[in-house]
Design brief:
The protein is α+β, with helices and mostly antiparallel strands. The chain has 27 helices and 38 strands. The strands form twelve sheets. Strands 10, 13, 14, 15, 16, 17 and 22 form a seven-stranded mixed sheet that branches. A four-stranded parallel sheet has the order 2-1-30-31, covered by helices on one side. Strands 6-5-9-23 form a four-stranded antiparallel sheet. The longest helix is centred in the C-terminal third of the chain and has 21 residues. The chain is globular and about 100 Å long. GO terms for molecular function: leucine-tRNA ligase activity.
Length: 854
Amino acid sequence: MTQDQDTTATTAPIPPTTTGRARHAEVEDHWQEAWETLGVFRARDDGARERRYLLTMFPYPSGDLHMGHAEVFALEDVVARYWRQLGHDVLNPIGWDSFGLPAENAAIRRDEHPEVFTETNIATQARSIRRYGVSFDWSRRLQTSDPAFMRWTQWLFVRLVERGLAYRATAPVNWCPQDGTVLAHEQVVDGACERCGTRVVRRDLTQWFLRITDYADRLVDDMDALVGHWPEKVLAMQRHWIGRSAGARVDFALVDGVDARGARTPHAGRRTVSAFTTRPETLFGVTFLAVAPDADVARELCAPEHAEALETYRAASLALSDIDRQATSHERTGLFLGTWVEHPATGERLPVWAADHVLPGYASGVVMGVPAHDERDRAFAARHGLAVRPVLTTAPGDGTSQARDVVVHSDGGGLTLDGLSPAEAAARATTWLSAQGRGGPQVVHRLRDWLVSRQRFWGAPVPIVHCAACGEVPVPDDELPVRLPDLRGEALAPRGVSPLAGAEDWVRTTCPRCGREARRDTDTLDTFVDSSWYFLRYCSPGHTEGPFDPEAVRRWMPVAQYVGGVEHAVLHLLYSRFVTKVLHDMGLVDVVEPFATLLNQGQVINQGRAMSKSLGNGVDLGAQLDAYGVDAVRLTMVFAGPPEDDVDWAALSPGSMQRFLGRVLRVAQDVTSPAVARAWSTASPAATGGDAALRRVTHRTVHDVTGSLDTSRFNVAVARVMELTNAARRAIDAGPGPADPAVREAAESLAILLSLFAPYTAEEMWAALGHAPSVAVAGWPPVDPALLAESTVEAVVQVDGRVRDRVMVDAAVGEDELQETALGREAVRRAVAGRAVVRVVVRAPRVVNVVTRG
């Protein structure tokens, strides 16, 4: 055994007194109790073994487990159980992301508190997870709605306020009319609320933001260390979302205009307007500036006679999602602001337009319009009759050079770009702008600050007090957590403001600084704030002096393997990386990346489509478990294909897996040789005698399964287990028989390998083989390298490239001997049929190709 165990627990398998669903329940209950009694899955954290932290993404308690849970838990548990068999001390905790809208909406419908819905579903899910046999360490269980957790979420927010990383601002926000709350930019999918599908609108609201943009460069640069450890798809999605662009800032001097009464318009004191471009080589191709209508700069630049029209256009723009505004199919609307600027090199007057395809969060909200070399600018110019000035062309090649792009028509103000390549021209233009004090190099990001305010009840209250004298005052640490008042039913219904705003007795408070009357902040925090740090709490869930014990975090972090869906690529994963870096800067954690490796699972579908009540293709997980047993469902999920692929349940056969499990169990039950107590992980590989052929199959299987598990090819590992089962069955029925030591070795290896995928059946096998529980910590079977060498192999014999024969030969056969053997085969002689043999290509010991002259 690889861990200390109480071996007084029941060691015998459950006698088959029942069948079907009752039999499944009897076996499952028995081994769940044994695991709990033995404490098999608890992280020891004693330093005796290498620590490995494994984590599955936070489940939300919206109901009982579904087929998606069945897949991700099965995959995650393969890793957890494999690492334990290797002798590691595994931290594999479980908890719930228990705040959120579903509980609040259910409370409104049922006239109750959201906690009722939440706690009921957590209890239901906990029972189902235990039944599913997932090897979680239940001693570290937590949930985000627990005041002991909420206290530290609020503590974290206060630290962010103190560091200037949390701030309150009025800004256009995404508003879901159905849910009555603000959505982060990332929570809007194709212009709709990702949760309820309602079309999102834009509103100006005062909200809390986190300055994730301060960490934009680090979030990009640190991904270099994740290459090869995270799926490239996820890294690409994060790079795109952060959207780092290198280019130049160009400062355009404002030209004072004249309004309808002849008065000069000095543009609210502004003298220049800055635009960002990723293509400074096109500087001489600028024919207008485009400004986001909902950016503050638009109002500053707008001439008074156009102010009313701008407000109308601004409102129309706010009603559109960012995706809609930038879509290629979107009509290129715009509004001339009555303002002109001067080109920094040519002195030409250029008009300034508001254009809704420009977004306020990108750089300054102002971009250069270069219609000759940008598709959106071209469409905008065509719609509004603006000039188009080409400044790039292709120079034809000659006998010594290829055709190349060059800059043309770009000379003025002491700056000449003509004849340069785009890269050369970009560098020269940027240098010139810096020297003239009219701009210079600039890096911008598409990423926006993280909007964390929510106008809903069931979440952690923002721990801020608003005082007329002191302003925004954080609640002192010793007064945390700020608990929610007792609201329920219709009191939770969305009314455009947070339900907390109506709890007047709760809102009224005193200022922590001056003691005067003050008011609590009535927003709650985005639930992604909770999940941005929960993995750290698991390292020391009972710690009371801080959100986590820093020493425990140093021992366990980073998470060695994180398992979850790709849908969280630019939400939870990005936020978790940001918060980890902040905590690192605070000196609380040593790591800068929370998750060393990431495994994404695919979606479970049915009949080629996502499961849906409206489509009538939903599959009830509980019914599947009752019909086939937990092990058969788990094995079906793992065997369906690579983890990242979608699983179509309609194309799978849990019944066949159930029959396979019966066959492999009978292998263990048929073994008649006595059990030998030994620690598998330290046993001498050559200690077991018996049938040499079966031993080679067993050791080759363990070797191959190890390689498959190390590369997350779990389905391949299952296939190899099936092959070993067949070999062991043949040895029992038509080979050396059930008493042969090699048969016992094969059966014991099967039990250990199968424990990763079908834990209940594996425990039954281990008990039938005479061992004390639990097989989960028996230790990984050793492999004798000498048994991996193949004594014979199959050589393919070809004639003119076509396979004509196959022959078993010694693995160490030489080329001359193999050629002689091949040419002497009857099938080869017939294929040659008297033609002259030109040459024989030999690749010992696998291939011989006889080449003839026809």
